[in-house]
Specification:
Helix content is 10%, strand content 25%. The protein has a single domain (20-239), classed as Distorted Sandwich (Glucose Permease (Domain IIA)), CATH 2.70.70.10. The strands form 3 sheets. The chain has an 8-stranded mixed beta sheet with strand order 1-2-5-12-9-8-7-10, with no helix packed on it. A 3-stranded antiparallel beta sheet has the order 3-4-13, with no helix packed on it. It starts with 23 loop residues before the first helix and ends with a helix. The chain is of the alpha+beta class and 243 residues long. Pfam families: Peptidase_M23 (PF01551).
Length: 243
């Protein structure tokens, strides 16, 4: 994609590349990943955040945090958002870390966060097969995570990552297992199982290519943004216009 065709950051729904060629009619076939109420908050994470976002390693080990900040009941974290003030853990600053060809100082969010209370059910977008499942233990990582290869209209496929799940979400899941549209595949995890995030949510991300493992670069560097907008399409093409 040439620079002339790269949409500006935080562009409206429909402005981003649509390499899967999904239509409005196609979107009606997909099940919500999280069932949201009619009213929810749209987060702005482009500026430094007032509340502490990540637990310490001791808090994760003891599963307690005396000063845990309150979280909104339901909220959406946006795609293509530069979160330079949020991503503070070594995971995002490690310039040598390479995830499917992406590395550098990673601040551009290329998924959508579906925030809800701990234990909120998480559903399969559509029919598919589990491609990878596991636990990404680093502070600020996905924690318990699942990648599903989903079937799409026109005999296409897409890989979807469901991150920050509860531990029991993956207990009986294995590679090659089939799932169906609307099947409960897990639930939103707490900070001691979701990578250390105080604000419980599902990181939902699409990929047009199979990831090497149960991982995708949930954020990319500014230099890689144009390429990432194609490799990791706007999830609103399957979730609908959440904002």
């Amino acid at each position: 994609m040439s620079d002339a065709h790269v949409p500006p950051p935080l562009s409206p729904f429909g402005a981003y590349p649509n390499p899967l060629d999904l239509t409005e009619e196609d979107q009606k076939l997909f099940h919500p990943v999280v069932l949201f109420p009619s009213s929810y908050e749209i987060l702005d994470l482009t500026k430094p955040v007032a509340n502490r976002q990540l637990a310490t390693e001791d808090e994760r080990k003891t599963r307690t945090s005396p000063d845990r900040p309150p979280a909104p009941p339901f909220a959406v974290g946006r795609y293509d958002e530069d979160r330079v003030g949020l991503y503070s853990s070594e995971l995002f600053n490690d310039l040598e870390n390479n995830i499917d060809g992406y590395q550098g100082r990673r601040t551009i969010h290329v998924g959508i966060d579906l925030e809800g209370p701990v234990g909120t059910p998480v559903y399969s977008l559509t029919n598919g097969t589990i491609h990878a499942v596991g636990y990404n233990a680093a502070l600020g990582d996905y924690g318990h995570v699942m990648v599903i290869c989903h079937d799409l209209p026109k005999n296409r496929q897409v890989y979807a990552l469901y991150g920050h799940l509860s531990a029991d979400s993956i207990e009986r899941r294995e590679v090659g297992q089939h799932v169906v549209a609307g099947e409960r595949i897990g639930s939103i995890g707490d900070f001691f199982e979701n990578g250390g995030w105080f604000f419980p949510h599902v990181h939902f991300q699409l990929a047009i290519k199979a990831p090497d493992t149960h991982d995708m670069p949930g954020a990319v560097s500014l230099n890689d943004r144009a390429m990432a907008l194609v490799d990791y399409p706007d999830p609103r093409y399957v979730l609908g216009p959440l904002y």
